[in-house]
Amino acid sequence: MDNEILNLLRPVTPEEREILDGKMSVNRDLYTSSQSFIIDSRKLLEKGQLIEIRPHTRFIHFPCHRHNYVEMVYMCAGSTTHIINGREKVVLEEGDLLLLNQNVTQEILPAGMEDIAVNFIILPEFFDQAMAMVGHHNVLYNFIVSALSSSNGLSSYLHFHLKNALPVNNLIENMVWTILKKSQTANTINKISMGLLFLNLLDFGDAINKEEENQYEQHLVFSALKYIEIYYRSGTLEDFCRLHHEKTYTVSRLLKKHTSKNFKELLMDGKLSQAAWLLKNTQLSTEAIFHSVGYENSSFFHRKFREKYGKTPREFRAAKTPS
């Protein structure tokens, strides 16, 4: 991370000074008003704010807690060790990114002076523009919405190794800088930056930490969804498994577990999503479109399209919003 930003994040905070002076526990009053340790966004965000950052509190064990917001942790320097959901050990090294939804619990082992992490406190509505930029029915859209929703979806967290992912690092540094400097346009800049961040993460699916069991499943499911997005026209489960040296029943089980759909259903979703995009963004005929996405039977295509979108292809195209 840029040294100027590190110098803004490194100084000991008043909370950390109390700890260094002998305080033996985290001051919960800074984070919550409830008996259970659920960190409250209202304690950390000013009224009307959708996003804020704060350096991670060092020098002390941060006890098991949850958040009523989405948290994004970026490791600027050094490392921190997190215990997720009471059982999964996640070590963040410089350049790592950890996204946590509202269901996850975590505790954090004591960090040293040069272990500098920044916590993004983000309300779910902040992601509206980012998700619009990524695009509905996109593999990353579905993946991140599932992972970061308040319901139990694909996973309660995402852990990326991104030290060498320059575009991602630049975007995160830009967000940190605009918030620290209280830029008047910070909200707009950071909503766009978040959208660009998510778009870039699509190219770094391999950066998901495969060493953690839960993350290995995420990586495999993400890879399958990305394969479907690229090869929706003629891809097969057998071909994907051959490329990834996996058994078909393993991939089928994980897809069903994490998406509630089998490979064939996801492949059909990919075809129909591409058809919808072509209807909205091109003047190709419906016949040309259903052939281009891999359908040969017009009646079958029309029936499945209507089931998914509630409109015929003609009605869907007529209802598109002007650009």
CATH topology of the largest domain, anyone? Answer: Jelly Rolls
The average pLDDT score comes to 87
Can you summarize the main beta sheet? 5 strands, mixed
Helix tally equals: 14
The string of secondary-structure elements, in order, is HHEHEEEEEEEEHHEHHHHHHHHH
Could you tell me the radius of gyration in angstroms? 22 Å
Instruction: Note the gap between the termini.
Output: 38 Å
Helix content: 40-55%
Oligomer: single chain
Task: Supply the CATH class of the largest domain.
Answer: Mainly Beta
Please tell me what the overall shape is.
Answer: elongated
Poorly predicted tracts of residues: none
Query: What's the number of domains?
Result: 2
Number of strands: 10
Order of adjacent strands in the largest pleated sheet: 1-3-8-5-6
CATH architecture of the largest domain: Sandwich
Estimated structural class: alpha+beta
Report the portion of residues in β strands: 15-25%
Pfam families: AraC_binding, HTH_18
InterPro entries: AraC-bd, Homeodomain-like_sf, HTH_AraC, RmlC-like_jellyroll, RmlC_Cupin_sf
Protein name: YesN/AraC family two-component response regulator
GO molecular function: DNA-binding transcription factor activity; sequence-specific DNA binding
Please give a structural write-up.
The chain is of the alpha+beta class and 323 residues long. The strands form two sheets. A five-stranded mixed sheet has the order 1-3-8-5-6, with no helix packed on it. It has a five-stranded antiparallel sheet with strand order 2-9-4-7-10, covered by helices on one side. It has two domains: 3-207, Jelly Rolls; 213-323, Orthogonal Bundle (Arc Repressor Mutant, subunit A). The chain is elongated, with a radius of gyration of 22 Å. Helix content is 46%, strand content 16%.
